[in-house]
Amino acid sequence: MTSFTPLAVHCGASNLCVAVFDEQSDGKHMLSQLISEELDYDISSDDDWLSATIVTLKEIVENNKLKGKSATLVLPGFRLLTKSIKIPHVDESQRAQIIAFEAQQNIPYPLHEVVWDSEIVGDDGIETDCLFIAVKNDFILSFVNQLFAIGLNIQQVTAASILDYNAVKASLGDASDNKLLINVGARASNLIFFSENGFFIRNISLGGNSLTQQIADSMGVSFNKAESFKVKFFSGAESFAEDDPHVKMVLGCAQQFMQRMSTEITRSVVNYRRQNKGKSLEGILLTGRGSLLSGFSEYLAEKQKVSIDYFDPIDSIKLSDSLAANDKMSIMRFQLSEIVGVASHAQLESPAFADLLPQHIQAERVLNKQKPLVLAGLSCLAVASFLPFVSMSGAADALERNQLAYSQATPAFRATSDEISAIQAEAELVAEKISKLETLTQSRFNWIFFFDELQASLNSVGDTWLDDLFVDRTQVVETVESSEEFDDFGNPLVLEKLTTNYSLTISGRILLRDDASRALTGDTIDPRAISNRLRSLTNELIQSEFFLNASDPEIDFSVIDEGLNLLPFKVTLNVDPNRPL
Hints:
- With 581 residues, the protein is of the alpha+beta class.
- It is 45% helix and 27% strand.
- The strands form five sheets. A six-stranded mixed β-sheet has the order 8-4-1-2-3-14, sandwiched between helices.
- Helix 13 (395-461) packs antiparallel against helix 15.
- The longest helix has 67 residues, at 395-461.
- The two termini are 40 Å apart.
- The model is unreliable at 519-523 (pLDDT under 50).
């Protein structure tokens, strides 16, 4: 659950933006102060980015007297791991465990090494589309602790990629459906597809810095010089002669950048429509400073065959008089969608938000809020302990009243205890269902891996195909001695345990070419020579982690006698219960 914070700190790849909000009586927020600073660091080093961000933010906090204020920290997309995953439609109480299981199969490191959250972006009643967002544990702990040290009270940590959704919905509402928002940043661009059923996000590693680096490589200058030249040229701050060789070079780089961006957008649109059965786009919205590139909107309109509009995020919030009169807002407004996404959270019925603040810091935050109540309780306890020494006359009456209150309260506590017991029993049933669902999910992946191994085995042997595949699941009741329950004489109780035995039988045929046919001499067949290839197939299969052992192959030589040069076989394998099929 998110809460209003007077500060929003958006950490971009090349820019740091701090917004100060005032909460209004109508529930909206007024942007009263905006501080934006460019970061000076080696863009190829993520560690340098963090150091530059902390140094710049410290100066902003000190110069603007922001120490002690509660803040929401917005992390850039390149510091996050974002995955779109599909899970079965389950009850909300079971959703987190299923998401964690699916996510672990799709991220390159263990879940305990990250802080993660998820956002539901669509649900058709059969499958649920989830956006999984994570950040490395060591990075976010270091970052937040350094922010605490400079005087910021970080209450929430969220992802920039999903805040664009809030900004657009707060400004356009349902008018955003079947549209695509493209937020062109410095290091990457964020694409959000809006539909009546939810939204879909894709982050591409292509932004304003890509164009700057291309210009730097073409001109043979440093990145900083190329960035300065790019800004002066496209902003019109400095005029250049038409025959200047650098002008043609920069225009060529810009053309290539727009082509690459259009190609990525087309790929994203096709992927979105294929996966989500989305309708055709009715329009594209542009925001972010990188989208202000001269000719960019016209180029996209021509290539994508849809209308292109610029999205102004501050339409949904109020500006202070000083900011409204600031000439710089004409440009800065297009880099505020994430900031506005934080402020618009309270206006939406179903806002998007992912809190990546580590759990122990969240617990400390809750404890800090409860400290006044705890101190008040201790004070009352101290006074109550001191009163008997002041006056003993009312002690007997107080004791009698306490006993009466206790006897009256006991039935309610007993009812609560019974309710807790019932809930615990229900929780055990739910846990059992989850366990079965996990087994089913694991079995689904096992089949994929097994067929991959089976195909490799068939390719290794060669000239082999399958006719039939059958799985036999037999439940067996076993008796085992309990290690925890004993009879009156101290002997372990004998318990019945229901287990499932799995076996898989495959049958097929192997083509005997000339080298195998030479083993036939008249009507005499050498089974050892012919079965070598079948034995090699069996050896391939029993090495799989899915099986415990394999039966000897069954061979029907009558078909060979009929001159078909085909060797039928049947192999039965015992499936490992820990890797069920």
